[in-house]
Design a protein that fits this description.
Chain lengths: 243, 253
């Protein structure tokens, strides 16, 4: 991993519990700037909770989180959430058209999204401008996911959190979204943190990987660690023997 | 009407009792309890009102209103799916609606400042506000649960709590006030409102009775909309903390 100077997100001894359950334990580590880091691990490892802490939807019980060297609590919540965007597996759509969904981030700031920019974003994610007037709820899973990513990009986030965005997609849509993420990463140098259950995907798309188990970070390094893990539990997980 | 005549009207209680027994509906116990409770409660209220009307003292009027607000709060927080700390929000809503309506009625000289007017009108306003509160709270908590993904989506995109719950709040306000508005559209076509019927039976001029009934209907429109909006805006901030995080646990069943 790189030094703190080139760190987009840094965790220092972070703990989080909910309803008496200790979900994250002693999380320490960094996500390098401009790179794609995948977050892998069995269900219930605390990966999605980690995202909610980065985006400020939850706060840690103890420990500190830094975004670009600034403590998370020194950000205004709204500023933090525009800096750290999040796209979820559910790709929740608000009622209305694709355009309405795409405009949402700017509408929340009392601004309007220019048609040219809307078309650019749709083009970037592989949806044509003919989609603008379609009802967002009628889109396929893959199209919703692309729209959800485009909508998050409206805020021009410096860090993009992707929570299992391809897990419910077919192979073709999955490949399209992977290409899209790589394209965005190259074009905007956006730091990407991607939760995935697909280890093949983590190997091919990620520069770095964090392996999490039972609320702890068990192993981190370049993505090829998944081919030859040092930790015994990670080895079992990679072989599909851990649940 | 004398007590003897009232005793004869018990025949209307006996009819459902006989039918329930005949068809084994099992309604006898509840029918008896309902009849006995309404006799005791209404007679007690009648004597209390007679005392308050005779005394014509502001303290007794205020005590009666406080009692109504207390009972309405107790009922609304018990029956309505509630939000943490809802009791004070309900009290504030009922007090506000009472001050607003009586302020206009008495301030503009629409009704005289006597117990005979203040107490029944307050009862109708607070009672209606209580029903609206239950409807609103049930709908609002359901909307917040069902649309939690949308709430967190808007927060995650940099929206404020107010923006995140706007749709849920709007839907709940509309859903709880529509029955009041809709029922007024057909009023008088099917059944005559209870207060108006009572006045007419008691010998009042039907036109005067209609005028008073219209006054009450208009009051209830204000009551419905103000109750829902006020309760909504008092309630939603308790569902978020100062870091604009949605506190799911603050929605209680």
């Amino acid at each position: 991993m790189q030094s703190l100077d080139h760190t987009a997100v840094h965790f220092r001894d972070v703990h989080f519990s909910d309803d008496g359950l200790h979900i994250l334990k002693n999380i320490t580590g960094s996500f390098p700037e401009g790179k794609i880091t995948t977050l892998v691990g069995p269900s219930g490892a605390g990966k999605s909770t980690l995202f909610k802490l980065c985006n400020g939807l939850r706060s840690p019980d103890s420990g500190e989180i830094f975004i670009h060297g600034k403590r998370i609590q020194d950000y205004e919540p709204v500023e933090l959430r525009r800096t750290v965007g999040i796209a979820l597996q559910t790709a929740t759509m608000i009622d209305g058209t694709v355009q309405k969904n795409l405009e949402l981030p700017l509408e929340l700031q009392g601004k309007t999204l220019e048609k040219k920019r809307a078309n650019e974003l749709l083009h970037l994610v592989g949806l044509g401008e003919e989609f603008l007037d379609r009802d967002a709820k009628d889109l396929s899973g893959g199209q919703k996911q692309k729209l959800s990513i485009a909508r998050t990009l409206v805020n021009q986030p410096q860090v993009l959190l992707l929570d299992e965005i391809t897990s419910s997609l077919d192979r073709v849509s999955q490949q399209e979204v992977e290409d899209l993420i790589k394209r965005i990463n190259r074009k905007y140098e956006t730091t990407m943190i991607w939760i995935t259950h697909n280890l093949e995907q983590a190997l091919t798309i990620g520069d770095y990987t964090w392996v999490m188990m039972e609320g702890e970070v068990v192993e981190t390094g370049t993505s090829d660690l998944l081919e030859n893990p040092k930790n015994e539990r990670v080895r079992k997980f990679v072989k599909g023997e851990f649940e | 009407m004398s007590y003897f005549t009232l005793a004869i009207t018990l025949i209307f209680v006996v009819i459902p009792l006989i039918l329930s027994r005949t068809f084994r509906l099992g309604l006898e116990k509840d029918t008896m309890i309902a009849a006995i409770r309404s006799i005791i409660q209404l007679l007690a209220v009648g004597y209390v009102l007679q005392f308050v009307f005779d005394a014509e003292h502001i303290i007794y009027i205020l005590l009666m209103i406080a009692l109504m607000i207390g009972a309405a709060t107790h009922n609304a927080q018990r029956k309505g799916a509630s939000i943490r700390g809802i009791i004070w929000k309900l009290i504030a809503t009922f007090v506000f609606i009472e001050v607003l309506t009586q302020g206009i009625l008495l301030g503009l000289g629409i009704t005289p400042p006597t117990a005979q007017y203040i107490i029944p009108i307050s009862g109708m306003v607070i009672g209606n506000s209580m029903v609206l509160s239950i409807l609103f709270l049930n709908r609002f908590t359901a909307e917040m649960r069902n649309r939690q993904d949308e709430t967190e989506l808007i927060l995650s995109l940099g929206g404020t709590p107010k923006q995140a719950i706007h749709k849920q709040l709007k839907t709940s306000i509309k859903a709880s006030t529509i029955p009041t508005i809709e029922s007024q559209k057909t009023i008088g076509l099917v059944q005559l409102p209870g207060m108006m019927s009572g006045q007419i039976i008691a010998g009042a001029d039907p036109v005067q009775a209609v005028l008073f009934q219209l006054l009450i209907l208009f009051l209830l429109l204000t009551t419905a909309v103000v109750t829902s909006i006020m309760l909504g805006y008092l309630s939603y901030p308790t569902l978020f903390n100062d870091r604009m995080q949605f506190l799911e646990g603050h929605l209680e069943k």
